[in-house]
Amino acid sequence: MATLGMSESDKLAVEAFRRDVVDPSRTSLVIVDFWAEWCGPCKQLTPVIEKVCAEYATKGVKLIKINVDENGFIASQFQVRSIPTVYAIFQGQPVADLTQARTEGQFRQMFDQLLSQLPIESEDKAQAQEIAPLIAMGEEALGEGDADRALSIFRQIGDMAPDNAEVLSGQIRALVALGELDQAQLVLDAVPPELAKEQHVERARAALSLARDSQPVEDLSGLEAQIAANPDDYETRFALAGGYMANGNRDAAADALLDIVARDRDWNEGAARQQLLKLFEAVGLEDPWVSAQRRRLSAILFG
Question: In what order do the strands lie in the sheet with 29-35?
Fold first, then answer.
């Protein structure tokens, strides 16, 4: 905004706008809410937009409220003709008109979309970059069967990021691997509601559910002999799959469950397929092993 020919008050308003909006918007998403004291809809919107912006503060969102009665020149520059008017500003330029948003859900959806598209700097991103190598270290320890070390790593990361879904998932899965199922349940129950449906948390929930369904079996030869004698004994084959899972033999468990699906996909209301999907979730949906087993399942179901 050029200041040539402006009144002193307008110049001060422009300088304040540069300080409060333009400069922060170089790295943050600045939400500008044009309002007035006499505006009823503005008063209704205020608690909604303030709450959501506060929730997204660590994601790089900053709220600035501009009273149009006190900052008429700024409002005119944005061609504000009615209030409330809400713009999202990034790098000094409006990137979205959020005026039609009225609910928390609508603002969250718009913020999520903008944050996914713009290179916003934030506390959350900085922390994620900092803990990513530590999470990888914890996952490596779990993959190598060192659940004690994995739990120690994830708990240390948890001190830094207590509400991180990946970290909570790692803690729960490490406790499951150690056989501490009740403790794992306590951690799962304490997961914040907004994270409960995160994929990482769902993975941990599946791992805990599988562990409760299955108990380690030292000798599976008896169950294997029953299956050899009667291949259509699905109940025993399902129990055998559980034994394989409990003993850490996911390949054999998948083979047993896929065999049930191939022979009778509707057995026990599709229990074998459901158990397979739970196993996939526990291992991790992005894992190459899961992709291979999914292809096998699809070949059976649709081949």
Answer: 61-67, 29-35, 85-90, 93-97
